[in-house]
Design goal:
This protein is an alpha/beta fold. The protein has helices at about 35-45, 65-75, 95-100, 110-115, 120-135, 160-170, 190-195, 200-205, 220-225, 245-250, 270-280, and strands spanning about 15-20, 50-55, 80, 105-110, 135-140, 180-185, 205-210, 235. About 35% of the residues lie in helices and about 10% in strands. The strands form 2 sheets. It has a 5-stranded parallel sheet with strand order 4-5-6-7-8. The chain has a 3-stranded parallel sheet with strand order 1-2-3. Helix 6 (about 160-170) packs parallel to helix 7. It is globular, with a radius of gyration of 18 Å.
């Protein structure tokens, strides 16, 4: 094991940025209930999770999905934090954003591929700007399954790097932007195409859930730790769609020369706090998130 422990340091929060509850329309998934998710998080040493409602990603109207999410998480709100869907090309989306704030959501989820929204759709720009003003993180899921296992009816495709870059750049101007984004499901290619096409200030607003990045023998993960930096890579479980142990395994399998502390990686609590800071001070994006 190559992870350097944080010996002598106080225990810290580690909030999973990508978890869901609810059924998946293309295959059976194990235990998508919130009470099971709480147990999984405890087993994997997460202190909480940003939780989305999986069926809603494939529905046209996100409102019933959000209602179901809030109701299901109510008994578990000390651990499970709602990340509702806000679809900016849908009527009255501003109301859904306001409800998310009232419910204490740290982030909202968007699914551009499922909605057919491309890089220059004006609705995405409006939503990103509104989230920056509200201090909410925008969570973008690039894909749910690898192309090799994807069901033929799942024809949405992946979110492109061009769309991700456009979302970061359409953050309110200020000192170069003030909306924090978390990209979930990206591999090395999309991550690098997105990250290296941005300015340093724009890069500071962007985090990547590293659950999908390949470890040995390709060692994409080690390469990204060296180049992009652990602080831009965020912890996740991806429950119930993927093995929840994947993130920890990637860190444990790092070559000895690339050994890092678990605390060097980003997590949901620090990312949400950064979103609040840059809400009023865009220059705070340069502040280390962890």
């Amino acid at each position: 094991m190559t992870t350097i422990p944080s010996s002598g340091a106080p225990d810290r929060s580690r909030i999973d940025v990508s978890a869901w509850i609810g059924a998946y329309p293309f295959r059976e998934i194990p235990h998508p209930e919130p009470d099971i998710l709480v147990k999984v998080l405890d087993r994997e040493e997460f202190t909480g999770a940003w939780v989305g409602h999986l069926p809603g990603a494939f529905h046209r109207d996100p409102v019933p999905s959000n209602r179901a999410l809030y109701a299901a998480l109510k008994p578990f709100r000390a651990v499970l934090h709602p990340a509702p869907i806000v679809r900016p090309d849908w009527p009255d989306w501003e109301r859904q954003l306001a409800v998310a704030l009232d419910e204490g959501a740290p982030a909202i989820r968007v699914y551009p591929a499922q909605w057919g929204l491309t890089a220059h759709h004006p609705a995405l720009a409006e939503l990103v700007a509104a989230c920056g003003e509200a201090g909410l993180v925008v969570h973008v899921t690039t894909r749910f399954e690898d192309l090799r296992q994807r069901h033929p009816l799942d024809s949405a495709g992946d979110v492109s790097a061009a769309t991700l870059r456009a979302m970061v750049r359409r953050s309110p101007a200020g000192a170069g932007g003030r909306t924090v984004l978390v990209v979930s499901g990206a591999g090395r290619e999309i991550l690098e195409e997105t990250f290296w096409g941005l300015t340093p200030h724009e890069q500071a607003l962007l985090f990547f859930d590293f659950h999908w990045i390949w470890g040995p023998p390709e060692d994409h993960f080690a390469h990204l730790v060296r180049t992009v930096g652990a602080g831009r890579l965020a912890w996740s479980s991806w429950w119930p769609l993927r093995l929840s142990q994947q993130s920890r395994a990637l860190i444990d399998l790092l070559p000895a020369a690339d050994a890092v502390r678990m605390a060097d990686f980003a997590e949901g609590g620090a990312i949400a706090a950064l979103a609040q800071r840059v809400r009023s001070r865009p220059e705070a994006a340069g502040t280390p998130p962890v």
